[in-house]
Amino acid sequence: QVQLVDSGGGSVQAGGSLRLSCVASGDSFGSTCMGWFRQPPGKAREAVAAIDTDGSAAYSESVKGRFTVSRDNVKNTLDLEMNDLKPEDTAMYYCAADSGKNAGYGGAYCYIRMEAAAAENYWGQGTQVTVSS
Questions:
Q1: How far apart are CA 73 and CA 121, in angstroms?
Q2: Which of 125, 98, 122 is nearest to 9 (CA)?
Q3: Which residue from 129, 130, 128, 124 is spatially nearest to 22, judged by alpha carbons?
Q4: Distance between CA atoms of 85 and 109, rounded to whole angstroms?
Q5: What is the pLDDT of residue 2?
Q6: Residue range 104-114, pLDDT digits in tens
Q7: Dist CA 6 CA 77 (whole Å)
Q8: What 3-state class would DSSP assign to 84?
Q9: Exposed (0-12), middle (13-18) or buried (19+): which is 41, by Cβ within 10 Å?
Q10: Which residue, among 91, 46, 89, has the nearest Cα to 67 in the 3D structure?
Q11: Burial class of residue 85 (count of CB atoms within 10 Å of its CB; 0-12, 13-18, 19+)
């Protein structure tokens, strides 16, 4: 069982930056795909980024080049650096841990598997990001 606590959300103007953080409990963090998802108001939850245990990462097209995901396998932390934020980035953001054994094949594989099996991921409680124009 993995428990996740995410934080760092807030309100910013378009063009601004925020950094989200997630702390994970348990002994499996270092061998688990991790990711960030978001749910905009009135829309379905969507994958934003995923990262494999070696730090290789993959991103949705909408955030590529603006967001950077990183992890610290010693501190059991996952971060999402968000730059050049846009109003369409407004959403509840969730830290997620893969519940399957998908690590070791790269960030893109983590992204695909976590997106496909989202209902089986472990989830943080969510942190709100609001971007005003």
A1: 19
A2: 125
A3: 124
A4: 26
A5: 87
A6: 999 999 999 99
A7: 10
A8: coil
A9: exposed
A10: 89
A11: buried
Amino acid at position 101, single letter: K
Q: Which two tokens stand for residue 132?
A: 């005003």
Q: What is the C-alpha separation between 104 and 33, in angstroms, rounded?
A: 8
Say if residues 25 and 2 touch (Cβ distance below 8 Å). yes
CA distance linking residue 127 with residue 5, whole number of Å: 9
Give the pLDDT confidence score for residue 78 in this predicted structure. Answer: 98
* CB-based contacts of 112, cutoff 8 Å, min separation 6: none
CA distance 55 to 124: 20
Separation of alpha carbons 93 and 36, rounded Å: 7
pLDDT in tens, 5-61: 999 999 999 999 999 999 999 888 989 999 999 999 999 999 999 999 999 999 999
Q: What type of residue sits at position 70?
A: S
